[in-house]
Write a structure and sequence with these properties.
Oligomer: single chain
Mean pLDDT: 89
CATH topology of the largest domain: Rossmann fold
Structural class: alpha/beta
Distance between the termini: 20 Å
CATH superfamily of the largest domain: Alpha/Beta hydrolase fold, catalytic domain
Strand content: 15-25%
Number of helices: 12
Helix content: 25-40%
Low-confidence stretches: none
Number of strands: 15
Amino acid sequence: MQFKKISFKNAAGQNLSARLDFPVDGRPLAYAIFAHCFTCTKNIKAIANISRALTREGIAVFRFDFTGLGESEGDFADTNFSSNVEDLVTAAQFLDAEFEAPRILIGHSLGGAAVLQAASKISSAAAIATIGAPGDPSHVAHALGPFKERIEAQGAAEVVLAGRSFKIKKQFLDDLELTHMQQTIRQLNKPLLIFHSPLDETVGIENAAQIYQNAKHPKSFISLDKADHLLTNAEDSQYVGSVIAAWARKYVDISRKDESQRHLTDNRIVTRTGKTGYLTEVLVNGHSLVADEPMAAGGSDMGPTPYDYLVAGLGACTSMTLRMYADRKNWPLDAITVRLKHQKIHADDCETCETANGMLDQIDREIELSGQLDDQQRRRLMEIADRCPVHRTLRSEVLINSRLKD
């Protein structure tokens, strides 16, 4: 993903570390803020997968470390749920001032409760999504188990969570008790999408039911089936991201505003490959695609290969050309199916090729024509297939001009 590292100040003047993930062309259609789970950071894998799914659909994602966590300044022991909400509001104000006001708020676990609480203070937010969120922040106090009694008795205690030690003060517990979440949800008055797993052992599924029952329509619930609380299975987080992107379109204007004015000759395609692996984001005139390599070739097999797209272009061009020709002739062509295969062959295996040595590319193309066509019409359509523009391009000399951008 294309991204920008950002630092902004919280209400106390401390620097909070953030990153803004952009669509591949760097032109967001909308902005979202992501609030991470309790004691997590902005860089956990699940958030990255969700962010990647959103940026493919043109949604920029602003994610940051709450005060005292990750790369942000401040002492975690001095924070509480209210300060997290305050950080969210401050993040929205920063985004509005420097880029564009956020239209989508997304929160995971306690971050989900935080976006519900912050939504009323972020007027630009038009859609809210929660993932494994507690119905009431005080749930976190219960999750602390035996540490809770120690905190209340001593005023503070070191708590080990997910293998890491955090100092939590009694004021953190007191703040949770003062938060009235049910009333907040009832007064949300914004579209709400709730994700939760029935197998979540950290925040039980009954919390999703509580949020859903208190929320007004429009509201939706998505069961995450076998997912765990942290969405450690990449397929779960990728699914969440794709569903949020599709759902948000109903409530947020996520469309290429200049699409109707786009000239047909303005056909620039943008691709971007990150620091590791071969997974490549592709933006084609507003249409989001991905390319990759098979696992056997060192890729992650998350999309077609570049050659797959090349051959697919020939197949699509072939069938479109035949459709146009048959329509012009008013022939009874019901459908065209094109099956293609690309492979490298030895030049000396080709009797009709000019290349005599080395390897060359061979594309086998099978065309199936459905409809009440006579033999003469079928022969003519096979001739027309070789005249499709992509076919001609592949058989002609192609000039490629490359330059290094400053």
